[in-house]
Amino acid sequence: MAGYGYKVDLVCPWNCHDANTPGTNFLTFKRANRRLTRFLNYFRIGKCLHKKPYDLYHFHDIDILPLFCLVKFLAKKPVIYDVHENYPEQMLVKFWVPRYLRPILSFLVKHAQRVCAYYIRNLIIVVPLQEAEFKASRYKKVMVRNFPSTDLLKGKQNDYESRPDTIIFTGKQNINNGSLLLLEIAEKVLKKHPRVQFLAIDFFAGNDALKKDMLDYIKDHSLQKKFAFLPFRRAHEIMKYLNKATIAISPNLKVPQQIMGIHTKLFEYMTGGLPIVASKLPHQAEVISKANCGFLADPDSIDEFVDRICFLISNRSEAKQMGENGVRAFLEHYSWEIEVTKLRKMYDVLLN
């Protein structure tokens, strides 16, 4: 938002030396990553916020929702809760939570979020399904979807025709994101097209067990030379990886958390001019069908994914056209520059 005339301080636990965000002042803190010590983050964030008064507070992590209820009470300034995930559903799939506790945790998160959000009042939602969760008239809510910026296109290379056949998945490695399904798809595609390369991001968010399972699968099925993990990069750098690929994949499973979500990687794939093969889930189906930028496949059918990927491999000109359709749809409907106008309007109302 710094580029639109607002003075912005961003409180975050990242190394921001390479962040391409002119006009933003970074207030960094050392994040406590161990679950038993995460309460320390409250004090570290609070110390950053205490450095000077602010006219508006905007946050998007449910872990600090109670903290910003306190901030609103003490600062007497507007606070925006950016509900960018379906947190109750997330609790049902957290790998580190014992299965018998997940429904209880989901119930607690759902109602605690509702109480805190009711006090904060100003909400940003990202998908229409969230309307039902926050339907009380007290809420002042705006739907602002988390689309990439058109700045990503500056790094796009126009060498699609000459690239070797390469399938990429840029999502976080997670069972419900389709990480294990991706391996099975890769194995079947490689039997038909042995020269194809698969790329994925080495981003497991602490799930060492899943990483071991995937590496074991890759070794046991002799995929080492054809399935590679790329180092994690921040969103503004992702084009460096998209430029290596000819097909993008989004194999999310058919579970509530995924069905209710809208996946940012789809729009990143569009900026790269890549045809997409994605799970036939409501939001993905709407985007891909409207843009004619790829194919849908039933996440319960490995063969559907394989058939659609093999078609794109064998029909490079049609694949290129789908990728170009995606770029055009991104510019017309799915860029951050379109969404930011709604956020600016909300800021202006709250600040005046």
Describe what this molecule looks like in 3D.
This protein is of the alpha/beta class and 352 residues long. The protein has two domains: 2-147 and 336-351, 3-Layer(aba) Sandwich (Rossmann fold); 150-333, 3-Layer(aba) Sandwich (Rossmann fold). It has 14 helices and twelve strands. It has helices at residues 40-49, 65-75, 87-91, 102-120, 130-133, 179-192, 208-220, 239-242, 256-259, 264-271, 282-291, 302-314, 316-333, 336-351; strands at residues 8-12, 24-28, 57-59, 79-83, 122-125, 140-143, 166-169, 197-201, 227-230, 247-250, 276-279, 294-297. The protein has a six-stranded parallel beta sheet with strand order 9-8-7-10-11-12, with helices on both faces. Helix 2 runs parallel beside helix 4 and helix 10 crosses helix 13 (316-333). The radius of gyration is 21 Å and the shape is globular. It starts with 7 loop residues before the first strand and ends with a helix. 30% of the residues are buried. The mean pLDDT is 91.
